[in-house]
Structure prediction request, 197 residues.
Amino acid sequence: MRFYDFYIEFVGDIPKHVERPIPGKSKESFAVWKKRVLGSDVSDVCVYRPVIVDGRTRLSTLAVEGRALKQLIQQSRAEVKAIGKESLQVVEDNATRQKQEIKNKARKVLKEVKNQAATEIEKTRETLLQKAMLVPIEELEYIIGQNGEVLEPAVKEHLENLMANAKMDKFPLEALLRGLIETQIQAVRIVRNANNV
Prediction:
């Protein structure tokens, strides 16, 4: 017994809660203590304590008492070991559960981060595409100036009209391409109509 300075052995169930010594009860009798601590459902309570052995005591009697004490100590050690294993298993189970929870949270956070990154990448891509689709007016003026002699007058006039109507520093490339394609289509129609006449 952990709270008392002696070993006992008995027949019956071990109490779930062993009462601690009560101060001032040092004169309590063994019978009262046994009923208070172990309850009334136990029997054959033996106390193991050091005694001075009478010289007439047979060794077989001492061996029986010694074996009983040895068995009690081994049983106590086994119970402590079993409790330790159970506690270790509980700790391992809790650690495994917490590890899985942490993994699940990490996966969730990683997924959220990936989704946010994908959204930001898409926004950046759209912004870059929009910027790439704008051509500075000066660049168009430079191209016209460099190629003015080889440009068809209608194409040159169309480009100059587009730039004049742009009213901004940069010109949308989409509008420029659309205008050039429309001019090309009109030119082809004119040539075809002239050939058919």
Q: What stands out?
A: Residues 48 and 189 are 121 Å apart (CA to CA). Strands lie at 7-11, 43-48, 134-136, 170-172. The chain has a mean pLDDT of 80. The first helix runs from residue 30 to 37.
